[in-house]
């Protein structure tokens, strides 16, 4: 199928939290000539893919929901994965977006046609043309599994937490969990009671703080449903708490009391001095992603669990070997090793204006963007949740802030007859120099850890160095003078339009 007869104003890739929000926002402003595709058979993005036991959100539900679609159905202060997925499906149906999504359709290649100022988009369901491209494919989609010596010799069961094998019964098995990041601290307590032996391989001890979670019973839900102001107040108070955390991340000296408190909590939570020493982080709280759990440390202290405070270095048959030489025979390996976040997977599908694949350009360095949204030499395109917009907040809130910028830009493009717009290299360079300069004093760069915020060269590609309020203010509108702009209708009459089109450095 080739759909060349129709040219879409915007082509949205992905129907996770960002794609759903984008489609709803575009409809709201009367911008209806768009297409949205999704590689899977249902919405949800990372909340559809991650179904491991205990999977949930570490941002309170009141804030981990769209500002325009509050819910009174959450069963906990911190929502679990099945509820978040149901919420996203309900929202997509309520706002009549689900019927617009073309499911089971994956983007295979996106090429910019400069003669027509159009994106030529090849999918497994055919080719499409669009004036603008919006990539809502998310930063945590590609599971990362280490390449280890002897991996192919393992004959037991093996899977990543993001591709959980629910058909495999863990009861009575000897299990090796590799990694102690956000996913592992959620699933380890769930699988520990089933295991015969559980070995948790930890390269670096993370900060795991108590999770202020609680059940919301039917009475609580009914009160929230009856009085929406309660939820709004709850949302506002959570936002203020996260702003306080973000202040500390930007000003590490303010985190000293939290570091001291965290160490005192470990003394209360873990009796064995050796285990306590092994789970005590050697870096400032917040340098790596903050983790919250109440059941992780009890699981580590169970009789059938052994923490190995070293990385896994090789596999010999069914024996896993730690960096200190410790060896254990196991039946199953579960990778809790996170995602490939430094190089967004969408980069493998997109070419810039010179025909260069973005993933090839990013081979030796992590990507840069302007406000996490516009990429160099990639015209008429926006990236959701791109480089250097990460603050400790809800991804949903960040996506909504970016959409203020993107939708404002798309409306300007339409109203002013713009056929091509590209972020100016000088604007992009100046912005990223400022970002990197101000990141040096944040806890991410100065806290004494090696986190996934830093690429192989030690450059912080993820974090935003200023306040969330500053990010939202910068994203409130798209400023055309920061873009090289071409006016003219090249799409329908490429030859004639070319001669009439004028390039303006607006």
TrEMBL record:
Protein name: Cation diffusion facilitator CzcD-associated flavoprotein CzcO
InterPro entries listed in its UniProt record: FAD-bind_Monooxygenase_sf, FAD/NAD-bd_sf
Species of provenance: Agitococcus lubricus
SUPFAM superfamilies according to UniProt: FAD/NAD(P)-binding domain
Pfam families cross-referenced by the UniProt entry: Pyr_redox_3
């Amino acid at each position: 199928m080739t759909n060349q007869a129709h040219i879409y104003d915007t082509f949205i890739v992905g129907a996770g939290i960002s794609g759903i929000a984008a489609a709803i926002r575009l409809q709201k402003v009367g911008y209806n000539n768009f297409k949205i595709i999704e590689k899977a058979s249902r919405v949800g993005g990372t909340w559809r893919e991650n179904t491991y036991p205990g999977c949930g959100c570490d941002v309170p539900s009141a804030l981990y929901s769209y500002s325009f679609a509050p819910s009174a159905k959450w069963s906990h202060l911190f929502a679990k994965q099945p509820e978040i997925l149901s919420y996203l499906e309900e929202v997509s149906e309520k706002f009549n977006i689900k019927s617009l999504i073309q499911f089971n359709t994956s983007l295979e290649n996106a090429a910019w046609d400069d003669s027509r100022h159009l994106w030529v988009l090849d999918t497994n369901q055919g080719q499409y043309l669009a004036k603008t491209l919006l990539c809502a494919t998310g930063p945590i989609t590609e599971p990362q599994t280490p390449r280890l010596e002897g991996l192919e010799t393992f004959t037991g069961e093996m899977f990543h937490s993001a591709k959980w094998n629910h058909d495999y019964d863990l009861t009575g098995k000897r299990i090796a969990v590799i990694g102690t990041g956000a996913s592992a601290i959620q699933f380890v307590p769930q699988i520990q009671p089933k295991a015969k032996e559980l070995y948790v391989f930890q390269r670096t001890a993370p900060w795991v703080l108590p999770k202020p979670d609680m059940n919301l019973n039917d009475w609580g839900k009914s009160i929230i449903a009856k009085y929406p102001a309660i939820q709004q107040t709850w949302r506002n108070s959570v936002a203020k708490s996260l702003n306080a955390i973000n202040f500390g991340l930007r000003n590490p000296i303010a985190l000293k009391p939290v570091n001291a408190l965290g160490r005192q909590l470990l003394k209360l939570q873990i009796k064995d001095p050796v285990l306590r020493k092994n789970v005590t982080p050697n870096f400032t709280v917040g340098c790596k992603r903050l983790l919250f759990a109440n059941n992780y440390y009890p699981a580590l202290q169970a009789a059938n669990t052994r923490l190995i405070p070293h990385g896994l270095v090789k596999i010999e048959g069914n024996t896993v070997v730690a960096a200190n030489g410790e060896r254990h025979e196991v039946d199953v390996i579960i990778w809790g090793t996170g995602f490939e976040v430094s190089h967004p997977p969408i980069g493998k599908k997109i070419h810039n204006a010179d025909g260069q694949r973005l993933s090839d350009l990013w081979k030796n360095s992590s990507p840069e963007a302007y406000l996490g949204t516009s990429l160099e030499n990639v015209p008429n395109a926006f990236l959701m949740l791109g480089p250097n917009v990460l603050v400790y907040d809800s991804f949903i809130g960040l996506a909504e802030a970016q959409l203020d910028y993107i939708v404002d830009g798309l409306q300007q493009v339409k109203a002013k007859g713009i056929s091509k717009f590209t972020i100016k290299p000088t604007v992009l360079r100046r912005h990223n120099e400022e970002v990197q300069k101000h990141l040096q004093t944040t806890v991410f760069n100065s806290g004494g850890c090696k986190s996934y915020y830093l690429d192989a060269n030690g450059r912080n590609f993820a974090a935003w160095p200023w306040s969330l309020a500053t990010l939202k203010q910068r994203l409130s509108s798209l400023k055309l003078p920061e873009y090289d702009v071409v006016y003219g209708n090249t799409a329908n009459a490429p030859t004639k339009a070319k001669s009439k089109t004028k390039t303006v450095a607006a």
